[in-house]
């Protein structure tokens, strides 16, 4: 009787707990917030539970490919820069994003996280600069703001308001003053492209002596919203 021939070993798939769905990883200049102008590797995670009316990354809502955290770190390292931005979509919609952020910090990178503010930021590594996007009424997602995030903010973090109208500006001004956000962290006001004249927003901030920083997104000025930039 002939014995059964042994089967060749097969490579085991990486554990699901070690994988994230990624839309893209690319090198560009950081276009906003405190790291603006630095060459930065962007790790864009797939998926977002929000549908802001001005979203410029809707291509990241679906699709993407699974990557292990080790593979992500290897690709980041291949670009040879210090700054890394984890973005989306909404990166915190994937729970394993917390582990990725920790691993990036452990590897010595200057790490920022761009998050919608709709999900709890309490588990994010404190070495990460959390850039919290508070949704204005004009975003069509103001009801998704997770207000319990505000007491968690530190001087290492940042808050961003995308202003879609004069009414948005007045609403955001009230939030800043009510919660003394400028005493907690850096606060940014940005005009929604084609909805608010940047010069008008700048004038409103100056007239009110509002303790916030005005910003235009460098990547939109340089590359006109081209994906992957």
Biggest β-sheet description: 9 strands, mixed
Distance between the termini: 65 Å
Strand order of the largest sheet: 3-1-2-4-5-6-7-8-9
Structural class: alpha/beta
What is the CATH architecture assignment?
Answer: Alpha-Beta Barrel
| Poorly predicted parts | 1-11
CATH class: Alpha Beta
Strand content: 15-25%
Share in helix? 10-25%
Number of helices: 6
- Whole-number tally of structural domains: 1
What is the general shape? globular
Descriptors for this entry?
TIM Barrel; 9-stranded mixed sheet; alpha/beta
Task: Give a description of the structure.
The structure is a single chain. The protein has a single domain, classed as Aldolase class I (TIM Barrel), CATH 3.20.20.70. The longest helix has 14 residues. The protein has 229 residues and is an alpha/beta fold. The chain has a nine-stranded mixed β-sheet. It contains six helices and nine strands. The radius of gyration is 20 Å and the shape is globular. It starts with 18 loop residues before the first strand and ends in a 6-residue tail after the last helix. 24% of the residues lie in helices and 23% in strands. The N terminus is likely disordered.
Task: Offer a concise description of the structure.
The chain has helices spanning 69-79, 97-106, 166-179, 181-184, 198-208, 218-223, and strands at residues 19-29, 39-45, 65-68, 83-87, 110-115, 129-134, 158-163, 186-191, 213-214. With 229 residues, it is of the alpha/beta class.
Secondary structure layout plus pairing:
Layout lengths: L18 E11 L9 E7 L19 E4 H11 L3 E5 L9 H10 L3 E6 L13 E6 L23 E6 L2 H14 L1 H4 L1 E6 L6 H11 L4 E2 L3 H6 L6
Parallel strand pairs: 2-4, 4-5, 5-6, 6-7, 7-8, 8-9
Antiparallel strand pairs: 1-2, 1-3
